[in-house]
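Quick check before the chapter quiz. The format below is the same one you will see on the exam, so make sure you can read both the input and the output lines.
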Amino acid sequence: MRTITTIQTGIRMSQSLYERLKRNAKRENRSLNNYLVHLLDTATAPKIPRLKRDDYPIDNDLLQLGQVLAEPSAEELENDPKLTYILNK
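Here is the expected output.
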C-alpha cells in the first residue's frame, strides 16, 4: 500500500466563503478538508482528452499484427518453456 505524505497549511478567506464551503462539504457528506482537497485536485488535474475507439479505425497492418500476436496454442506452449514462463509471469 502506498503512503501519501500530506502537509498542513493555512489559507485566508472571507467568512462568507468559508460558510459556503462548509455547507457544500456537508451536502456532499465530506469533511471541509476533504472537500477542499477534492476541489483543488479536480481544478488542477491535467486535462487528458477522452479518445473514442470509433474515431480510430484499426488499419490492416494492425489487424495483421493482432493475428501474429494471437494466443499461442497448447502445443506451442508445451514446446516452448520460455514462452510459457513469460506468459505466466
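If your answer matched, good. The helical segments are 15-27, 32-44, 60-68, 74-79, 81-88.
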